[in-house]
Amino acid sequence: MYTAPDRLFHRDMVLLLVATVGALANYALLLPVAPLWAAEGGASEALVGTITGAMMATTVLTQLSMGWIFRIATLRQMIVVGSLLLGVATPAYLASTAVVPLVLISGVRGVGFALVVVAGAALAAELAPAGKLATATGVYGVAAGLPNVVALPAGVWLAQTWGFAPMFITASVLAVLAVPLAFAISGGRSHAESGSGSGHLPMRTWAKFLAPTAVFAATAVALGGAMTFVPIAVPDPGTATVSLFALSALMVLGRLLAGRIGDRVRAGRLLLPAAVISAIGMLGVALTTGAEAGALTVMAAAVFGFGFGAVQNDSLVTVMTRAGRNGLGTASTVWNIAYDGGVGIGAVLLGVVVAASNYTWGFAVLAIAIAAFAPVAFRLGRPSGRATPGSGAR
């Protein structure tokens, strides 16, 4: 049985963190660029959204199959295969700008992405030294979030300055480099062996996690729409790049701050103010992307990112609290489904709305969707449960 060393940054943990950065940098670089590539080929807004939607759809389908996957593969093997799928599939984008092949390629990458994020979070917990589970998952959350801060805006800049081909090759190399790093990890039992996985997700599980994941999913829908269409909706490429950077950086800050505050308040208490902040930020994006707003667009994206990060952390803490220690794996799977499913739905939804109206109305619909779940967030914030230390898995 694997026993992690006493120190946090031991060999296997460092390998996991670096591999995570490489694999998820591939995801973050291409999240806004793959739709931009389709738009360059003449795809309509409605079809552009299906690129991200396809990736998130296969991500969620893979996550729904985790009970079976946990029984046939170790966590380390899942990260190896997931990184390989991300890296090998990426250069195939260069073959065509037609929507159908781009959707198929994105679908393959979605399978790889699901394997990496679910197994990575579970492996971080397994590699945690005794008594440092929250710290270890928090550090893993930073490693998973950093690619969004740097690579999300960098992908647009690289594509627009170097060209799409060098950008796709760079993203591919980063994911492939994660393969030997993950393979070198000596820990990584299967999730089933570690006692936190089960073969399926029963209806009572969904009911228990429905409220917090619904609030989080609403903000994830907005995130998916923003990351897919801000590069297309904002007239100035520089403003689009800085806006994505601000959104990503403030996501990490919001998550870290919510975790610190969450150590002292009840789980779910931060969901309402965080959701309100994210809705205000998205409304600001709606009011500024159609004009040469510049700094105002950047500020609005930053406000949304901060609110999203706080919702992200507190919703995860809430589902973990409701799951109990024996249900953490299932809780993580459900939470990740809400995250990735929301991102995919947001990309498709915004594309459909924009095709029927304009970007202002499209982003406004996303803000309204977040606000619609404010009553749910309010109920979750009322005294009814015990507090738990905040930590993050992704």
* Low-pLDDT segments: 191-199, 385-393
Count of DSSP E strands?
A: 0
Mean pLDDT: 81
Please, what is the oligomeric state?
single chain
Radius of gyration (CA) equals: 19 Å
Strand % is: under 5%
How would you classify the helix and strand content by structural class? mainly alpha
User: SSE order in H/E notation?
Assistant: HHHHHHHHHHHHHH
The end-to-end distance, rounded to whole angstroms, is 26 Å
Walk me through what this model shows:
- The chain has 394 residues and is mainly alpha-helical.
- Helix content is 77%, strand content 0%.
- The protein has helices spanning 11-40, 45-64, 66-72, 75-89, 99-127, 133-161, 164-183, 203-233, 237-262, 271-288, 295-323, 328-356, 359-372, 374-381.
- Helix 1 crosses helix 8.
Short description:
The chain is mostly helical and 394 residues long. Helix content is 77%, strand content 0%.
What descriptors fit this protein?
single chain, 394 residues, mainly alpha, 77% helix, globular
Topology:
Elements: H1 11-40, H2 45-64, H3 66-72, H4 75-89, H5 99-127, H6 133-161, H7 164-183, H8 203-233, H9 237-262, H10 271-288, H11 295-323, H12 328-356, H13 359-372, H14 374-381
Helix pairs in contact: 1-2, 1-4, 1-5, 1-6, 1-7, 1-8, 2-5, 2-12, 4-5, 4-7, 5-6, 5-12, 6-7, 6-9, 8-9, 8-10, 8-11, 8-12, 8-13, 8-14, 9-11, 10-11, 10-13, 10-14, 11-12, 12-13
